[in-house]
Amino acid sequence: MRKVAVIGIGLTKFGYHWDRDLISLAVEAGSKAIRDAGIHQKDVEVLYGGTMSGGLFINQEHLGSMLPDYLGFKNIPSVRVEAACASGGLALRQGYIDIASGLHDIAVVGGVEKMTDIGSYSITKVLATAADTERESVFGATFPGLYALMAKLHMHKYKTTEEQLAAVSVKNHKNAMHNETAQFHKEIKIDDVLKSPMIADPLKLLDASPISDGAAAIILASEEKAKQLCDTPVWIAGSGHATDTISLHDRQDLLTLKATVEAAKQAYLQAKLEPKDIQAVEVHDCFTIAELLALEDLGFIKKGESGKFTESGQTEIGGKIPVNTSGGLKAKGHPVGATGIAQAIEAVMQLRGQTGKRNTNAEIAMTHNVGGTGGTAVVHIFRR
Amino acid sequence: MRKVAVIGIGLTKFGYHWDRDLISLAVEAGSKAIRDAGIHQKDVEVLYGGTMSGGLFINQEHLGSMLPDYLGFKNIPSVRVEAACASGGLALRQGYIDIASGLHDIAVVGGVEKMTDIGSYSITKVLATAADTERESVFGATFPGLYALMAKLHMHKYKTTEEQLAAVSVKNHKNAMHNETAQFHKEIKIDDVLKSPMIADPLKLLDASPISDGAAAIILASEEKAKQLCDTPVWIAGSGHATDTISLHDRQDLLTLKATVEAAKQAYLQAKLEPKDIQAVEVHDCFTIAELLALEDLGFIKKGESGKFTESGQTEIGGKIPVNTSGGLKAKGHPVGATGIAQAIEAVMQLRGQTGKRNTNAEIAMTHNVGGTGGTAVVHIFRR
Q1: Cα torsion angle, B106, B111, B117, B118, sign
Q2: B299 interfaces chain A, CB cutoff of 8 Å
C-alpha cells in the first residue's frame, strides 16, 4: 500500500445553521479544503463522504451523487459511507484505502450533517437508529440512557465521581474558547455541570455533546502528489477500524469498547507506535463518560483510572496527553457525520502548528471516532 | 493493485418476506456465501454492505455494526455504503478496492433491503429520496414519472414503440422462469404489458420492476487466497464507478446516462476489452426504458437502436448479447440494496456454468447497476 498524506483542510463553523441546508455546508467545507490544498476542482479524482442519516434528517439519500455535482466535480466516483456517528472517520479511512491502493491520487473526504430543522421526526429518535432499534430503542433506551449505564458502572466499580465526569466538560469548554469554528465559546465550572438539568442519571445536560449542523472536508493525496503539491503534508501513519455488538447489553464488559481497543491496536501496529508516543488526541466525547472510557481503551491510562487522571489536569493542554484540544464533541459541536473529519482537521492543524493558543507542539496525533455505544470505532494516527 | 476473485456466492429468494426481517435475510445470504466458498466465519477479515435506506425502511441505521455480529464475524471492520439502488454494486466495488489494495485477503460483500412491511412512510416516498428531494420529489416527480420522461423522448426521437419497451419485460419474465430465486415465475406476452394499468405514460405496471425483500452476498479473495481455496475462481477483470447530476433536469441529454458511459469506459479500459467481447450482461432494468438506454450507453448498440434490437430477439439467450438472463430487476425482483450483488451472482453463475436452462456458455460477463435516474452507475466485468 502507498503512503497517503493530508494536503488540505476545510471546516464550517459548527452550530445551529437555521438559514442553510446540508449542500451549502458541504460545499463550503469542500471548497475551503480545495483552496487550502492549492488544487483545482478538476484535480479531484474521487470523493468519500460520511453522513449518518440523510434519509431521516433531511429526507435525502443518494448524497454521493448530489455532492460532487454541487462541488463542481464532474462525473467522478463518489461514495457515501455510514457508521452512525463514526461516518466521518469511516469516510476518511475508505478514502485512505482508495489512495493507498493506487486507484486514485487525489481524493476529497468529507463529513456533513444537518440536524436542526428536521420535519416529523425528533432528533433523538433519529439518533436512536444508531442503536439496535428492535432490541434497545424500542424499549426506551436512548443514547443518554445507554451512556448513563456505563457511567453508573464506572462510578460503582472505580469510585469515579460526578465531579470527575464534569472535569471533562470543563476542560473541553476551556479548549473551545480558542477555536473559532467551535459551537460554544463559554467557559464553565464543575458546579455549572453538576447543577445543570439531569438527563439520565448521572449524566446532566452539560455532560452531553450538543445538536449541531456542520461540515468538514480534507484532501488526501498519494505520496508523489503530496510532495509535488504541498510543503507541509501530514501523513496518515496508521488506520484502524473495528466493530462490536450494536447492543450494549450483548457485551461481556460494559466498560470496554472492544471496537476502540481493536481499532487502536491496528493503528498502533501500522504506525509502529505506542500510546506513550501520541502527543495530542481527539477522542469521541459524545458524553463525558465516553472520553474517560476512550482514554483507557486507547491505552493512555489503566482501566478505571481515567477519572482521577482527568481531574488532576493531565489531559489539559500542557498535561501528560492533551485530549480534545479542539473542544471535543462537547464544546466544538457534534454534527454527527462531520465529527470524524473535524477531528482529523484538529490533528492536522496541531501538526502544522496552526492551532494558536491551543497549540501542543505535537508531531504525532491521534483521532478516535465512535458510532453508537461503540458498535463502530475508527482510529487514525497522523504524523508530520 | 492485486487481482481479486469471487470465490463464493449466496442469495435469498427475492419477493415478499412478510415473516422475516432484514437481519434474517442478510444472515441467510452471507451464510450461504461462506458455505459456497468453503471457508469459515473466522476467515472473513472485512465486510462491505450496501443498503439504500435502513433509516427510512426499517428505522435502523448503523447496519455496519449489526451485521457482522449477527453473522458471527467478531469485531471485524465493516462498512455500509449507500448509493440508492446502486448500493450493492458500490459495496462490491469498495470490497474489490480493499482486497486489491492489499489491506485484507478475504471479504464478504453484500447487499440487502427489507422494503415491505414499512411503517409510517410509503415505499414510493422512500425511493423518492434517491432523487433530488427539494428540486424533483417535492414537485411530484416520482421515479416512474422521471423514467417515463426518458421513455417519451426516446419514442419521439427514435420511433421506439410501446411494444419494443414491452419486449424487454416479456424477455425478462421468460428468463426468470428458469431462475428459482426469482420473484416471478410467470410468462407474459406483449399484450399483457400493453394492457396492464398505466403508471406514468407510457410506462405501465408491467414496465416496472417490483417491490421486493431480499439479500445477496459474495466472498472476494486475493489472488493467492483464491488459488488456495477455490477451483473455479471468477476474476474481476474491470471495475468502474461514476456519478452524474442527481436531477434529471440538469442534464444536457436526457437519453444518455453519462455515469453509465463513464463507468463502462473505466471497466473496459481496465479489462482491456470492448463491448463486442461481453457475452452476457445484467443491466439495471428498473423500468423497461432503462434496459434500452443501458444497451446503448454500454456500447452494445448505437443510440436509438435498442428498441428494434430488443424486438428482434438479439438480447435473448442465444441472441447477439444475452441481457438479464436472471430475469433482471423486472422479474427476478429488486430489493434495491441487494440488486448490484445479485447481478454479480448471476454473472458468476453464468461463468461457472451453474445457470441450467438459462446458460449462455459465457466466459466474460458484465454487470451494470444504477442509482436514481443515473446519478450513480457501477459497472463490473468478470471473467473465468
Answers
A1: positive
A2: no
Report B:228-247 residues touching A (Cβ under 8 A). Answer: 241-246
Between CA A354 and CA B213 the distance in angstroms is: 51
Work out the minimum CA distance from B305 to partner chain A, whole angstroms: 25
> What count of other Cβ atoms lies within 10 Å of the Cβ of residue A307?
25
Distance between CA atoms of residues A189 and A206, nearest Å: 10
Catalytic residue among B104, B154, B241, B334: B334
Contact call for residues A273 and A237 (beta carbons, < 8 A): yes
Residues 6+ apart with CB under 8 A from B93: B239, B241, B378, B380
Mean pLDDT of chain B: 97
Q: Which three cell numbers stand for residue B358?
A: 438459462
pLDDT at A120 over 70: no
Helix axes B258-271, B288-297, angle to 10 degrees: 50
Q: Residue A19, Cβ neighbours under 10 Å: how many?
A: 7
B35-69 confidence digits (pLDDT tens): 999 999 999 999 999 999 999 999 999 999 999 99
Residue B229 has pLDDT above 90, yes or no: yes
- A6 with A220: CB under 8 angstroms? yes
Residue in chain B nearest A259 by alpha carbon: B75
Question: What are the backbone angles phi and psi of residue A214, rounded to the nearest 5°?
Answer: 165, 165
Cβ pair B56:A58 closer than 8 A: no
The confidence band for A117, taking pLDDT boundaries of 50, 70 and 90, is confident
In this model, does residue B120 exceed pLDDT 70? Answer: no
Chain B's closest residue to A250, CA to CA, is B69
CA distance A113 to chain B (A): 14
User: Locate cell 434490437: which residue?
Assistant: B309
pTM: 0.98
Closest-CA residue to B274 (of B263, B264, B285): B264
Q: Residue A62: which of B65, B94, B246 has the nearest Cβ?
A: B246
The predicted-structure confidence for A150-195, as pLDDT tens digits, reads as follows: 999 999 999 999 999 999 999 999 999 999 999 999 999 999 999 9
Q: How confident is the model at residue A286 (pLDDT cuts 50, 70, 90)?
A: very high
Q: Is B239 left (phi over 0), alpha (psi -120 to 50) or beta?
A: beta
Interface contact A103-B78, CB threshold 8 A: no
Which of B52, B62, B132 lies closest to A372 in CB terms? B62
To the query of whether residue B286 is one of the catalytic residues in this protein, the response is no
Helices and strands (H and E) in chain A: how many: 14, 11
**Candidates A56, A64, A98; nearest CB to B83:** A64
Q: Which of A76, A4, A35, A6 is nearest to A350 (CA)?
A: A6
